[in-house]
User: What shape does this take?
Amino acid sequence: MINTKEYKLSEKIITSSLAAAFSYKEYRIFVDELAKHGKTTGTEQKESLIEYTRLNSRRMKRWDKTIKLPESAFEVLKNFDKPVLWIVLTESWCGDAAPSIPVMNKIAESSAKITFKVVLRDENPELMNLFRTNGTLSIPKLIIVDEQSKQVLKSWGPRPTKATKMVEDYKKENGELTSEFKEDLQQWYNKDKGQNILRELLDLLTLK
Assistant: This one.
């Protein structure tokens, strides 16, 4: 979370970033087109990142179809009455974004008070720099902003707590994340069915 002294600066940066923001539907079409034509977002058109974009295109399509909100989620959303912007920083190749962003969208779709926008990290370095995680440019990063004042209220990311612990434990024991671990992490996301992400995002709407 950025501090109070940065609110005025962040308002200008946030307003600027929204000029090139995607709706979720636009972002999904964009990623599908990238995957279809063998491209990726970001500054590097590496084959590994292109392949992750292809994977994420398929994964987000599956998540869009399978995510279901429980009745308890609709109760939280019914009681949420503050118009907010949800702005998520991401890139098409980001493995943690594939399960997280569809959950964000499902919540936003179910509330008239939440406007959801997607922006690309590498095209918005000033905004990303305000929301580094332990000094890194980790994504996805969700920023919750008051719709009227553009004041930053809260932030979340890049992973839910259980996935974060898995990553930290693996790095402590093995160093850099391997492709095998990344696949194990995706399997965890699949088994969890977005519930850890859902609970934490809904908490952001209830915690003062």
